[in-house]
UniProtKB/TrEMBL annotation:
It holds the Pfam family Lipoxygenase. This is Allene oxide synthase lipoxygenase. Signal peptide: none annotated. Keywords: Dioxygenase, Metal-binding, Oxidoreductase. GO terms for biological process: lipid oxidation. The keyword Metal-binding applies. Residues 1-356 form the Lipoxygenase domain. It comes from Ornithodoros brasiliensis. It comes from the Eukaryota. PROSITE patterns: LIPOXYGENASE_2, LIPOXYGENASE_3. GO terms for molecular function: metal ion binding; oxidoreductase activity, acting on single donors with incorporation of molecular oxygen, incorporation of two atoms of oxygen.
Length: 356
């Protein structure tokens, strides 16, 4: 239960702090609009921006600069090889001007673009995809919040993937000096942070040196771990829960038709219902959310095509699969004792790539 809700950042007389003690439906309306704002950031940035557009940009950069035989290309390929086709389909189906995004959400394509612009300006890939660092920066470590299902479960996945990446990368770069001698890797690094206007990805916070590239093995390992976890486990947490969270529109509405409340005048149930979309639009929303929440055809680590064949890499992958089985058992056990089950980071349902 929220302690209080304020719907605007400005300090004005018509920006009240809503409380549970306010009239019931007035408090309910404030909660609906708060969830609505969260749903818009979720849809625009976390789903489309961070797990789809960002990862396609990384994959294009990978295709341009790394040969198919390069170990970094081989590590990323199972998780990114279909993302361009997936994004093309989603953008055509849901985000064409006048299409689903414009008719079924409050912000439309224009608002989505605005949120994406602001989010990418603040995004730092070396900090934000490094989940342990991100949890610490956001103040949600275990010493602050004891029980945090997303943090606790995804940390198991992150650690398993990091160990796998480290085993593979450490084999190919036995000495850190070899990082600077890899021309393909240096060009890959350079294009990741190069400005859009110059043909690069324009990603801020890429670890390493802007000229010489990665200067430490851990920089490359952490970045690759973050990329793989972002398009698998993080994508699972963001996508698979959509229907359960937002399929009942009053709970997590992506379309609200009225004005954001600026007073505590008592509302009625009719006022709440009038904020919601009509039956046809609701059906379009629910149908889309159901499709976007579909379970994966291939779970994390279960590659359709094997890209890494060296015995060292095969052994590392086998160890990864063993660790994921252990993580699945731990998460299932946790969910038996949690007040609210959190199923979205069980390796049994985590997709191997951004495929929806």
């Amino acid at each position: 239960l929220p302690v209080a809700i304020q719907l605007f950042p400005d300090k004005t007389c018509d920006n009240p702090v809503f409380l549970p003690s306010d009239p019931q439906d007035t408090w309910m309306l404030a909660k609906m609009f708060f969830n609505h704002a969260d749903a818009m950031v979720h849809r625009a940035w976390l789903s489309i921006g961070r797990t789809h557009l960002l990862m396609e940009s990384v994959w294009v950069c990978t295709q341009r600069n790394l040969s198919p035989s390069h170990p970094v290309h081989r590590l990323l390929a199972p998780h990114l090889m279909h993302i361009a086709q997936t994004n093309a389909s989603i953008l055509e189906t849901y985000f064409a001007p006048g299409g689903w995004m414009d008719t079924c959400t409050t912000i439309g394509v224009r608002g989505l673009t605005h949120i994406l612009k602001r989010a990418f300006e603040e995004f730092r890939i070396g900090d934000d995809l490094n989940l342990p660092k991100a949890f610490e920066g956001n103040g949600v470590t275990s010493d602050v919040i004891e029980a945090h299902p997303f943090r606790d479960d995804i940390t198991l996945i992150y650690d398993a993937v990091r160990s796998y990446v480290d085993k593979v990368i450490s084999f190919y770069y036995a000495e850190e000096e070899s990082l600077g001698k890899d021309n393909e890797l240096r060009e890959w690094h350079k294009e990741l942070h190069k400005e859009h206007a110059q043909g690069g990805c324009g990603i801020q916070g890429v670890p390493g040196n802007s000229e010489s590239g990665f200067t430490a093995l851990d920089q490359l390992v952490e970045l690759l771990t973050g990329l793989i976890v972002n398009c698998t486990a993080f994508h699972s947490a963001i996508n698979l829960a959509q229907y359960d969270e937002a399929g009942f529109l009053p709970n997590y509405p992506i379309l609200m038709r009225g004005n954001i409340p600026r007073d505590k005048v008592p509302r009625t149930e009719k006022d709440l219902v009038d904020q919601l979309p009509n039956m046809d639009t609701t059906l379009q929303v629910v149908t889309a959310l159901r499709r976007l929440s579909a379970r994966p055809a291939h779970e994390l680590g279960k590659h359709v095509v094997r890209h890494l064949w060296h015995p060292n890499d095969v052994k590392a992958h086998d160890t990864l699969m063993e660790e994921l089985v252990k993580a699945s058992d731990i998460i299932k056990q946790r969910n038996r004792t949690r007040k609210y089950s959190y199923a979205w980071l069980d390796p049994d349902v985590i997709p191997n790539s951004v495929s929806v």
